[in-house]
Amino acid sequence: MHIKGIHHVSAITANAKENYDFYTNVLGMRLVKKTVNQDDTSMYHLFYADEKGNPGTDLTFFEIKRAGNTYPGTHSISTTSLRVQNDDSLTFWQERFDEYNVDQDPITVRADRKTLSFRDPEGQRLMLVSDEQNHGVASGTPWSRSKVPVDKGITGLGPVHLTVSNALPTITVLKDILGFKEVGKVENRIILETGEGGTGAEIHIEERTDLPREKPGRGSVHHVAFRVEDEEELEQWKEIIQKAGFPNSGLVDRYYFKSLYFREPNHILFELATDGPGFATDEHIDHLGEELALPPFLESKRKEIEAKLIPLETK
């Protein structure tokens, strides 16, 4: 039993319409689910992913309309990486970002891979990472109906970067409880991986004692989720986490997957999520994300929920 890799990353937006426009029209990702936050149904929860919404490809957003600015710092998920197929793809993206006036940095080599850091319109910290030299967890398949050519498209989530004031407690949780292994250090970042390894299974930890604690808002990340095979394994992970003394959510049915949440010592929220059943559970694979999808336990409240949402056209 082991963590298979990154499952998804969930972030915050203050404007679902503009968020949808950027992630589908500029980044070319597919909206695979338009639903609501199950803990607060007054806000959208948007899921962008590859062609089929495979685990390991999902970047999700909660819409919190009154979210303020993010003030970066420690105790945070400070960068989310997105995988592309090769080095040449980064040149394509550099030119595309120029065309769409996306805030970006020069192409840089990090951990022996070419990368391109950029920000979305709300300051969400993102990085494209080339899979040209990658060996490990398989990537997804770019959306064939995307405005981005398939051979240049985003194929899934890459390394997730954490910034903390004291790295040891976080590293201890990842290694001793979740089974990650330390595989290297680049500059001031410690690299850990799990499962088959590679870009889809890495956590990079940066220790910074010169920064205040991050004040999250729009453009910040809420949590990172790690992949587990199924509900049976998730039950076993619950026992492991409880025995380690960490308060946790217990198993939560998110309908598209089952989850368990806990905070590590630097207060970063970790989720363990099952690979299935997946986003085609309640929609045909050809029409994912076109309508507001609600899990069965919320369906009876559809009219009430829809009345609180600003319509978002996604067809």
TrEMBL record:
Residues 5-131, 156-275 form the VOC domain. Pfam families: Glyoxalase. GO terms for molecular function: dioxygenase activity. The keyword Oxidoreductase applies. Keywords: Dioxygenase, Oxidoreductase. InterPro entries: Extradiol_RC_dioxygenase (IPR052537), Glyas_Bleomycin-R_OHBP_Dase (IPR029068), Glyas_Fos-R_dOase_dom (IPR004360), VOC_core (IPR037523). This is Ring-cleaving dioxygenase.
